[in-house]
């Protein structure tokens, strides 16, 4: 038997297809031909590798899944973060009810007002940096949209109340517009990023790789790689 015919039959056997010649004759040739024996060994090894890469190999070793994150560490961080959020909300609530925490007093009213201005300056600077970060890395947009959105809603309420009572000027009201616009743009960027997800940070226009090739096309490529003739040439 010719080696090309034997290798074509062996390739069909590995693919689970009908062999073009009787299997007994192929086995006889395989027992007598060292070159075909070595070719068959290498072909089976490469077949298992390709099937494993394609996710269809039953004989290949399964790729282990990454270990899940330790629930204790993440759970503790989440509980601590949630507790701090509750504390911060309580501080905001008691301040809204009139508790001043020593910022306003009859003897140090100017100092208290200066500290409040410094707090506002620090928050404005932090918000500006986070908006720039979201523009550079849209993956930050969801968190920034949430924080800036809630801040903008609360700020709009207090601006409306203070405007009615005459406690805020028009220039100060205009200075709050970047907060509202930034929260809106961060939310829109988040929505667009969800519709066109980034792939490894390449960009929104990148395409997601297609699934693994079908086993039929995989076997044809394997035959060409190993140098065996195609079925159509038989």
Automatic annotation (TrEMBL):
Stretches for region Disordered: 208-234
Pfam families linked: DUF2275, zf-HC2
Transmembrane regions listed in the UniProt entry: 139-161, 173-190
Domain of life: Bacteria
InterPro entries according to UniProt: DUF2275 (IPR018734), Znf_put (IPR027383)
UniProt domain Putative zinc-finger: residue ranges: 3-36
Keywords: Membrane, Transmembrane, Transmembrane helix
Domain DUF2275 residues, every copy: 78-182
Protein known as: Putative integral membrane protein
Naturally occurring in which organism (per UniProt): Mycolicibacterium aurum (Mycobacterium aurum)
């Amino acid at each position: 038997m010719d080696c090309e015919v034997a290798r074509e039959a062996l390739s069909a056997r590995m693919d689970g297809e009908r062999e073009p010649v009787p299997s007994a004759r192929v086995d006889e040739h395989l027992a007598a031909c060292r070159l075909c024996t070595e070719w068959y060994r290498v072909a089976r090894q490469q077949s298992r590798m390709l099937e494993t890469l394609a996710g269809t190999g039953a004989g290949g070793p399964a790729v282990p899944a990454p270990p899940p994150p330790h629930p204790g560490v993440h759970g503790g961080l989440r509980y601590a973060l949630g507790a701090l959020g509750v504390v911060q909300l309580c501080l905001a609530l008691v301040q809204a009810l009139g508790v001043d925490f020593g910022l306003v007093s009859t003897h140090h009213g100017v100092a208290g007002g200066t500290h409040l201005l410094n707090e506002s300056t620090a928050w404005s600077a932090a918000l500006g940096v986070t908006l720039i970060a979201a523009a550079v890395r849209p993956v930050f947009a969801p968190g920034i949209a949430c924080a800036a959105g809630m801040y903008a809603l609360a700020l709009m309420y207090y601006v409306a109340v203070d405007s009615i009572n005459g406690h805020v000027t028009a220039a100060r009201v205009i200075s709050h517009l970047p907060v509202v616009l930034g929260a809106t743009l961060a939310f829109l960027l988040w929505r667009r990023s969800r519709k066109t997800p980034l792939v490894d940070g390449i960009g929104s226009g990148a395409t997601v790789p297609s699934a693994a090739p079908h086993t039929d096309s995989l076997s044809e490529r394997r035959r060409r790689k190993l140098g065996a003739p195609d079925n159509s040439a038989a």
